[in-house]
Amino acid sequence: MDFDGDGRLDLLSGSNCCDSLAFHLFRRLQNGSWAPRQRFSVKAPADTRWQVLGGLNVVSAADWNGDGVPDLLFAPAKNPGVFVAFGPFGSAREITLSHEIPLQPRGTVFALSVADWDRDGKPDLLVGQVLEDGRRGIFWYRNLGGPGEPRLAEGKLLLADPSDTDVIRGFCVCDWNDDGRPDLIVTREERYQRPPGSGPWHWRGTVWVYLRGDRE
Q1: How far apart are CA 18 and CA 181, in angstroms?
Q2: What is the DSSP pairing of strand 38-43 with strand 94-96?
Q3: Which terminal residue of the chain, N or C, has fewer Cβ atoms less than 10 Å from its own Cβ?
Q4: Do 165 and 149 contact (CB within 8 A), yes or no?
Q5: Could you give the strand order of the β-sheet that contains 124-131, starting from the edge strand earlier in sequence?
């Protein structure tokens, strides 16, 4: 997303357990290189109180309300919900979020992306969540609202963790095979023993491509 409106795509990153109410922006320069990282702090809406328990927060930028300007979507670490602040942000380095985007079912968020998943011309929300009932995976929240007024349907599970020891860590949405339909690029982390059943546990990361089927 072109966060600063200069016509070039930028990169946003969440922050870690020691700075969980902040995110970082890497601006793309005219020569193709990246500007030094810029830190932005985030304030919760006035009626919201977060427990700052550490962990990784999640951030994304998209034109959520259809006015042609990038907005900020932020999921605080170890707290349920996705929150939004409407741009433009100018030179501000502290951004106050306006409200929570209603999600049903609720759960803590470990990844999120804005994409037109059903190709109806409206931005949908795809969220990696750990639900209160223990389910974990990527959920699609379809946008049923009108122009500039997003209203989300109940979340539909698109992809669950393969097992208790093979879990989804992140994802992005893109048309991987150029067929006009959005696909999922998913990072997974697997815990295993070698040989099985004995010895220390090891971790390995993998990247998976999930292509849309004709009936999806």
Answers
A1: 38
A2: parallel
A3: C
A4: no
A5: 107-115, 124-131, 136-141, 156-160
**pTM attached to this predicted model:** 0.90
- CA distance between the termini of the chain: 26
- Which 3-state string (H, E, C) describes 160-216? ECCECCEEEEEEEEECCCCCCCCEEEEEEEEEEECCCCCCCEEEEEEEEEECCCCCC
Amino acid at 163: S
d(CA 185, CA 4): 26
Question: In the block, which residue shows the tokens 């122009």?
Answer: 147
d(CA 131, CA 35): 37
Strand-pair partners of 114: 125
Neighbours of 28 (CB within 10 A): 18
